[in-house]
Write a structure and sequence with these properties.
Layout lengths: L9 H12 L10 E2 L1 E3 L2 E2 L11 H7 L2 H18 L3 E2 L24 H17 L3 E7 L15 E2 L3 H6 L2 H7 L5 E4 L3 E2 L11 H11 L5 E3 L6 H4 L4 H11 L10 H17 L1 H20 L7 H7 L4 H16 L1
Parallel strand pairs: 1-4, 4-5, 5-7, 6-8, 7-9
Antiparallel strand pairs: 2-3
Helix pairs in contact: 3-4, 4-6, 9-10, 10-11
Length: 322
């Protein structure tokens, strides 16, 4: 869901999510949203308004971060969302980064890890799946993958010490990870979303991740500049992605589906890879089903505790004063 799906009030959002969740399979599909805080918050009304991750990482301790995320998760869950594309585990190490910046919890990988994991625990304890992004790290780029294909030239030792550290610590406990449309010269010539070396050998083999790997939007120009949605979909699944985001064009979605079916019908190993991906996605759907509420139950669930509202207000004022 995006801001464009919110056409009225919280009741409309809950009804929309319910229409998707009910009658569309058992277990029901994943209903997801980008609700990080700061400038990336698709739901503007009815849920707590979080400051930027940078502000939260600087002003809140881990216990309060977990509590804030739990409250947010309860509210998102009441609206019918079952997955939030947060926390951002990118480390903000490039001052001119046009896309991450204050979306990162910190400039230090250890603080990004502790803050991000606290946020993830809070979401998960509320019944909403967290999804860490953007693997293996988008924090040191000087271009935006929505517009062009970024490159990171650091050697493997630096990647291990900075970019990969938060994901390494999260891999065993987080149910979903989103890939980055970024080339890492020390790892592969293909962007991470399309790289078997990164998506499978490193994320699963070295870091031990067993959850769902979600591609970033395949319509972003970092990928779409050179590949159509069908080509990108096949390459992403071959690399190790389990679910594909195609967020705007129904024609692109259909093209991707047709390409995946055609490839699976003609290649037994690719069909096996698709079945593996389906198994992981179905496990996530069973673990985090959408549970939209309505009426008084929805209104009650959306009420935020006073102490959380006070802490967020204080964090916002500290951000202004700093």
């Amino acid at each position: 869901m995006f801001a464009r799906n919110v056409t009225a009030d919280v009741e409309q959002v809950a009804a929309l999510c319910a229409s998707i969740a009910h009658g569309n399979g058992d277990p029901p599909p994943i209903v997801s949203v980008d609700q990080e805080g700061g400038r990336v918050a698709r739901i503007k009304e009815g849920v707590i308004r979080l400051p930027t991750a940078h502000t939260m990482g600087a002003c809140l301790d881990d216990a309060m971060l977990e509590r804030v995320a739990h409250v947010l998760g309860k509210q998102l869950g009441a609206l019918g969302f079952s997955l939030d594309y947060a926390p951002v585990l990118d480390v903000h190490t490039h001052a001119d980064n046009p896309v991450i910046g204050d979306r990162a919890f910190a400039t230090r990988p250890d603080r990004v890890a502790t803050a991000g994991l606290a946020f993830a625990r809070g979401l998960a304890s509320s019944g909403v799946a967290p999804c860490a992004k953007h693997f293996p790290g988008h924090g040191d780029t000087h271009t935006d993958s929505h517009v062009e294909l970024p490159r990171v030239s650091h050697d493997r030792a630096r990647l291990d010490a900075v970019e990969l550290l938060p994901f390494r610590l999260a891999a065993a406990v987080i149910p979903a990870v989103m890939s980055a449309h970024v080339v890492y010269d020390a790892l592969d010539e293909a962007p991470a979303t399309l790289s078997h070396r990164i998506a499978t050998d490193i994320l699963r083999g070295e870091l031990g991740f067993r959850g769902v790997l979600v591609s970033d939007d395949l319509e972003m120009r970092a990928v779409a500049e050179t590949l159509d949605a069908g080509q990108a979909a096949v390459l992403a699944i071959e690399a190790g992605c389990d679910a594909l985001l195609i967020c705007s064009s129904e024609d692109a979605q259909l093209l991707a589906l047709e390409a995946l079916v055609k490839r699976a019908e003609s290649n037994a190993s690719f069909r096996t890879r698709c079945e593996e991906a389906e198994g992981r996605v179905m496990s996530l759907r069973r673990a985090f089903p959408p549970r939209p509420l309505a009426g008084d139950a929805l209104a009650h669930a959306l009420r935020a505790p006073a102490d959380v509202l006070d802490v967020l207000a204080d964090a916002g004022s500290e951000a202004v004063s700093s």
